[in-house]
């Protein structure tokens, strides 16, 4: 059995505290930026894109703001609306945790579509680039959830359980680590393997976005059964969480994206 520290502070500078959540969240953004920049650079070298790195960095900077705002709004609206309705000031307390992936995804996809339409750039190509960066960033992003002791698993009477002292004294499933390994590492590994096979020619087909969408939605749907989150009734015999419902929609969207990519490939032949 493993127990986390009761403090979420990584280190302090004078009276200013630096939290693990902020450190790891910033690291996830840095990893995503580094990987996406290198992909765009390679695409330019092979003639698959004319998007300059300066343009891409500007796109990412605004995209980051969009993702943070939409992720926070997603958490507020999807998961704990009543609490934030009664405590509106807490909406701005991001350091307490509470960024919903699906909210960020919705905001980012809208931003990508509008940006690409304005710049006459392939939106599928940008989605592919961002999907690989997102899967890599999610590895440390879920570690941020782990050290912030949020999104914890159900009580698990096992020597492999983890105690989150800010929650209670019971060992629980470390579901954040499960998600880091599947939504992050597994999705990234499959995408890189597909990239090695196709030698960059598959960018702009939406394939990497589809791989990420399917791996993420499937793995999170399963892991949600082990999370200590409120379930909602769908039928008399089936209980699903809000996250699982959003994952079902994400899976369907991935299949639609696959169909769109296939149609574009057929038109180019």
Characteristic key phrases:
mainly alpha, 8 helices, 63% helix, 269 residues, two-stranded antiparallel ribbon, 3-stranded mixed beta sheet, globular, 8% strand, single chain
What characterizes the major β-sheet?
A: 3 strands, mixed
Evaluate the radius of gyration.
Answer: 19 Å
Helix content: 55-70%
Strand arrangement within the widest β-sheet reads 1-4-5
Note poorly predicted spans. none
Distance between the termini: 57 Å
SS-based structural class?
mainly alpha
Proportion of residues in β-strands: 5-15%
pLDDT averaged over residues: 88
- SSE sequence, one letter per element: EEEHHHHHEEHHEEH
- Total of domains: 1
Number of strands: 7
Helical element count?
Answer: 8
Note the overall shape: globular
Q: What's the gist of this structure?
A:
By secondary structure, the chain is mainly α.
Characterize the structure shown.
63% of the residues lie in helices and 8% in strands. The termini are far apart. The protein contains 8 helices and 7 strands; from the N terminus they run βββαααααββααββα. With 269 residues, the protein is mainly alpha-helical. The model has no long low-confidence stretch (mean pLDDT 88). The protein is globular. Helix 1 packs antiparallel against helix 5, helix 2 runs antiparallel to helix 4 and helix 7 runs antiparallel to helix 8. A hairpin with a 7-residue loop joins strand 4 (162-163) and strand 5 (171-172). The chain has one domain (2-268). It has helices spanning 20-45, 53-78, 81-86, 101-119, 123-147, 175-198, 207-223, 242-268; strands spanning 2-3, 9-13, 16-19, 162-163, 171-172, 231-233, 239-241. The strands form 3 sheets. Strands 1-4-5 form a 3-stranded mixed beta sheet, with no helix packed on it. Strands 2-3 form a two-stranded antiparallel ribbon. A two-stranded antiparallel ribbon has the order 6-7.
